[in-house]
Amino acid sequence: MSKTVVSSDNAPAAIGPYSPGIQTGNMVFLSGQLGIDPATGKMPEGVEAQAKQSLANVEALLTATGATFADVVKTTVYLADIADFAAVNEIYASKFEAPFPARSAFQVAALPAGGLVEIEVVAAL
């Protein structure tokens, strides 16, 4: 099965040796998206702003494949502080509708670039 790199000018480039996403067949696997603003290369202050930007980056990559949030079947949310779960969940809920994708969410010791939230998704076209 062939693999195609997923990228977008409206999402930040990878900050390491990985692809922003890979499409294979009807499946799209997006790497975790930090809240990095692709225009500035910087993250906004605060977990809410970073969550919004993270989801904007996810949306840009989904759009590059012809997918939308409705096509997402699995998400993983990484938090620097689990106390931010409710705030991030509210922003997350604004992008997804029932039937909601399966999801895992947990606190990690640290995220790259000092991020407060990182979100990865799997979509089926």
TrEMBL record:
Signal peptide: none annotated. PROSITE patterns: UPF0076. GO terms for molecular function: deaminase activity. GO terms for cellular component: cytosol. This is Putative endoribonuclease L-PSP. Belongs to the RutC family. InterPro entries: RidA (IPR006056), RidA_CS (IPR019897), RutC-like_sf (IPR035959), YjgF/YER057c/UK114 (IPR006175).
